[in-house]
Amino acid sequence: MGQTGSECIAWLNQQPSNSVLFVTFGSGGTLTIKQQNELAWGLELSGQRFLWVVRAPSNGSASASFFNAGYNDGNNVGSYLPKGFVEKTQGRCKLVTSWAPQVEILRHPAMAAFLTHCGWNSLLESVTNGVPMIAWPLYAEQRMNAMMVDEEIGVGVKVKVGEGALVPREEVERVAKMVMVEGQKRNSIKQKAKELKQIKVQSTHCRLMDLLITHDLHLLSYGNINFKLLIRGKYSRDNIFIGR
């Protein structure tokens, strides 16, 4: 059931070109049990192929649990996914419960889209490889990153949060189909992602200015780690911070 990094690449090698949605919330991102169930059923409803890096859900709110999230035992992954989910998605789903080689996955020909928490490194790796995004921020600066992906750069779509701060399964289904199924919105996102890929950003720092200036964004960099972003004058210098 659970797959190692090498096994998930082997699975991707067997999938059609431009057909798989990659789902991960980063090294330490976790969801509540209820939210993880909604995500699971939304993916099932979408009818799309997907590769999901699954972590044990948190007891509280969605968060970054870098020191306690850990990697999962693939033999127990079914205990924190909804009953019947694995059976219903068999044949079009791979559940990755260990470390996943994200850069290698994103550059794979089978990749069609990336459901991401919008950490800065993930955002740039997706842009570098021309992969459209579903932006699902969990906390802090990721919310601004997600807004940039959707409203400013136009290389993805941001999920809409419903009642009780929950992203319902219907919304997961909607955004998955929006970036995976042929249509005007998908074509627009794909074209913009393709254009940005041509800039060929080499790292989180190299030619980052080129990437943002190209799209009328203004970046002020501080050292090699932290950045402040002003998006077309809509936000003040003090209320935007983009980190990793």
From TrEMBL:
Enumerate the UniProt keywords alphabetically.
Glycosyltransferase, Transferase
Which segment of the chain is annotated as a signal peptide?
none
Q: Which PROSITE patterns match?
A: UDPGT
Report whether Glycosyltransferase shows up as a keyword of the record.
yes
User: What does the record give under GO molecular function?
Assistant: UDP-glycosyltransferase activity
Membrane as a keyword of this entry, yes or no, is no
Q: Which family does it belong to?
A: Belongs to the UDP-glycosyltransferase family.
Q: What is this protein called?
A: Uncharacterized protein
